Amino acid sequence: MIRFENISLTLNHRPLFRKLSVEVPAGGRLIISGESGSGKTTLLKMLLGFVFPDEGKVFIDKQELRLRNVWQLRQKMAYVSQEMQIGRGPVDRFVREILRFKNNRSINYDQGKMLRLMDDFQLGRDTISKNLDDLSGGELQRVAIIVTLLLDRSVYLLDEVTSALDQSLKEIIVHYFSNLKEKTLIISSHDTIWHEQGFPILNLGKNGSSS
Amino acid sequence: MEAAPDIGLMRLLAAFGLLVVPLALSVFMKLGIARQLFGAAGRMTGQLFLVAILLIYLFRWDNPWLNVAWVIIMMFFACFSAMAGSKLSFSRFFLPVFLAYFAGTGLVLLFFNKVIVNYDNIFTARLMVVVGGMMLGNSLNSTIIGVSHYYESVRKESKRYLYLLSLGASQQEALLPFFRDALLAAMRPFLANMATMGIVSLPGMMTGQILGGANPETAIKYQIAIILAIFTALSISVTLSIFFTSRKAFDAYGILKADLFRG
């Protein structure tokens, strides 16, 4: 469960949110819509404790996001943004490094699962030995998504993940996530294909209003 | 081998006579650097004469405390000028970088003086002031390059950093790749320089020693030792600088603070 409670935030002298309240139940979906600069990414970053509201509270699974639990609550989230430089070196090594983080040691590296996910997202199997620097934007995007899926988090924050992809890849990604019934999805996107899924939409307007 | 003969005052003026060529270039090509050239040459001459006077007394008195104090003062100014060339905030970085540099260079300088050269008095002006000065000029810039690279890349690639945090990395784990890149950025130029030494350029220390009457064999041994010492000193300084500054550069949530850079 995710809840924003009376969130207000002014960033660089611009009011982004005023008394914004939204709740997404566990396993629920929410599309955040709005022009660029309307605060879509900022709202997602708030859930990770990367940005803080001037007023109001953020709840994750009934716990208020605070300094003392931020590092632990981040473990529930997976965050993927567009056009990310995620690392260097071979894909395989990168994935193993992520799984060697202290917090992730309980997860075994299952290369079979990795390869199946690569098939699902139409990445050639040879991608696993390629260098991250040599991947195209679309390939990198899918690797970033696959890594979060290996971690099996309960909340997925997808920040314009499909905007740089072609139509068939957009469809693959949207359908994949739409079928993850038990995951909570919070999506920021302009893509109509997300809007066609019938998920609830939060419109961030100008001047901090929302509907 | 004999020491090189002194250069008389009139002959030194002949060296200034060489400037006729760049000056003429400046006039004919409208480079507009004549004033700057006079200024720079004048400053260099004044500063070096002052240093010569200081060195004469430092060598005459050869007081260990004074020699160490001189090295610290040089470090202070070197740190100041190297940081002025970077975008890092003075108030946040000057002290930790200075301390890291002092520890890194200080340790290696003592090792050089005691283990490699093995003089009876390792605080003698000949070693402290001369070798210390040599190390300073070379390793501080690399240190600042490393530290700037670290913070600038965390800022520029903040998506990557935040992505790693969201993947469950602790702050240290998420910063590790940036630390790796910073070390490489600091070390690589010096490594390239090391690999061409003696072919592309004859190093200053060696030239000085040979002119001073040392035989080339001794001169190259000193040169090799000092280059290795400088490289080690800069490795320690970069590591410690990042270590000393990293804790305070991020807030409790792991986010890079905004006031690390000037302007």
Brief summary of the model shown:
The complex is a heterodimer of chains A (about 210) and B (about 260). Chain A is α/β, with parallel strands linked by helices.
Describe what this molecule looks like in 3D:
The complex is a heterodimer of chains A (211) and B (263). Chain A is an alpha/beta fold and 211 residues long. Chain A has a 5-stranded parallel β-sheet with strand order 6-7-8-3-9, sandwiched between helices. In chain A, strands 2-1-4-5 form a 4-stranded antiparallel β-sheet, with no helix packed on it. The model of chain A has no long low-confidence stretch (mean pLDDT 90). Chain B has 263 residues and is an all-alpha fold. The mean pLDDT of chain B is 90. At the A-B interface, strand 6 and helix 5 of A face helix 7 of B.
Give me some keywords for this one.
heterodimer, A: 211 residues, alpha/beta, Rossmann fold, five-stranded parallel beta sheet, four-stranded antiparallel beta sheet, 9 strands, B: 263 residues, mainly alpha, Multidrug efflux transporter AcrB transmembrane fold, 77% helix, globular
